[in-house]
Amino acid sequence: MAREKEAEGATEADGTPELSYREQLDFLNPIARPLASRKLTRKLYKCIRKAAKHKQIRRGVKEVQKFINKGEKGITVLAGDTQPIDVYCHIPIMCEDRSLPYAYVPSKSDLGAAAGSKRPTCVIMIKPHEEYQETYDECLEEVEALPLPL
Q: Quick one: which of 42, 45, 69, 40 has its CA closest to 57?
């Protein structure tokens, strides 16, 4: 009984308790298409962690938008639970215009944590780099295979 209370207290002290992939799907906004599967979401988070170590990510709407306009290549990962959607609804259109792959993941807090930040983030661009090229190529292949919304 005491252990259960300790475990419960630990999750409350950290903030919100961890939600499963299925529970996170309840908070998605209507434009979160194409949504990455649970397996692809894990791969993307792993790739983001590796890219963050090598300083090869762009984080936040303003920075990602700037580098998409400059013609930088990479995988754009968007959080599906961002409200209001007006904040970043133009990013997928910019990606489609420049033939950049993009995918949604269910949680902005998990996306921020994968980038090594305590702050949630709604969009990240992963740039290719030779140190994690294999993981990047796997993610790129799977993201490009996702069906685009109509």
A: 45
Amino acid identity of residue 92, one-letter, is: P
Residue 135 amino acid letter: T
Instruction: Name the percent of the chain lying above pLDDT 70.
Output: 88
For helices 38-53 and 133-145, the axis angle rounded to 10 degrees is 140
Residues whose CB falls within 8 Å of the CB of residue 69, separated by 6 or more in sequence, listed in order: 94
pTM, whole model, 2 decimals? 0.86
pLDDT, tens digit (0-9, with 9 covering 90-100), for 57-112: 999 999 999 999 999 999 999 999 999 999 999 999 999 999 999 999 999 999 99
The whole-angstrom separation of Cα 68 and Cα 90 is 12
Q: How far apart are CA 5 and CA 142, in angstroms?
A: 41
The answer to whether the beta carbons of residues 120 and 108 sit under 8 Å apart is yes
Task: Judge residue 143's burial from the number of C-beta atoms within 10 Å of its C-beta, 0-12 exposed, 13-18 middle, 19 or more buried.
Answer: buried
